[in-house]
Fold this sequence. Notes:
Layout: H1 4-7, E1 39-47, E2 58-66, E3 82-91, E4 99-107, E5 112-122, E6 125-132, E7 144-152, E8 157-162, E9 165-169, E10 185-195, E11 208-217, E12 223-225, E13 231-234, E14 239-243, E15 249-253
Antiparallel strand pairs: 1-10, 1-13, 2-7, 2-11, 3-4, 3-10, 4-5, 5-6, 7-8, 8-9, 11-12, 11-15, 14-15
Amino acid sequence: MERLIDRMMAMLVVFVLATGAVVVIDENPAAAAGTCGTQGNYFDGYYYDPDNWPGYSFEGASGYIVVRDGVLCSGAGGIGNFSNAWLMIAGWNRTGAAWSQVGFERTSGFPLRWFSQHAWNNSTGDHLSTRYSTFSIASEVGVRHTFRVLWNSACTCLQAIIDVTVWSNSDFNPFFSSGWGGLPFSPQFSGETGHLETDVPGRSGTRTAFTALGAQQYSNDALVPMPCAMNATTSSARWGRSASGCDAFSIWTATP
């Protein structure tokens, strides 16, 4: 799941993560979506653009997301056919990989799962570090959870957090040249799919709600509400997006 800006040029609930084996549930929870076309990365959400709004300096992102499922297109398997929702902090205007994200995802052949990913680029090329839960989170559909990616000076890393559980740490320091090379960073909030024929999570009557959107300030590490300085992106007219104020919105797949 690449950084949104690279491909689109244009707070706590107590939660204990269970363990167990993968439980594969019906890959297409509703009526089947269309046949898969060209693979790509397609988005429905909002992102902060430091070039347009240089008055802020952020190093992390935070928010609530209600877990919803997405119907996958047919005819394409593997990790390239997915439907997910996440928040991230991303390096801005980088030539290589630069993002840390956390959320939930359905991937072809697997159930709905938690996931996180940290990506960076150094002299040896692009690098990804991804973690999925080893269990289905089907029971969490309709439940609101807290997701955060925050800078932690103790580990000199970015931490992906689900509710109160640290889900993963980046193995790089984004402020150093071996990571992203420093500020500016961009908080981003979105649904994403691997094909335009795949649904983003949520339907019109059961939308994927993003609320309490926030960012971690570089100046003091504090969490603050996202300002209204955000850009919207929608890759398909099949998907709906509705904002409520400056720090909340919902996404869903509006048409088959």
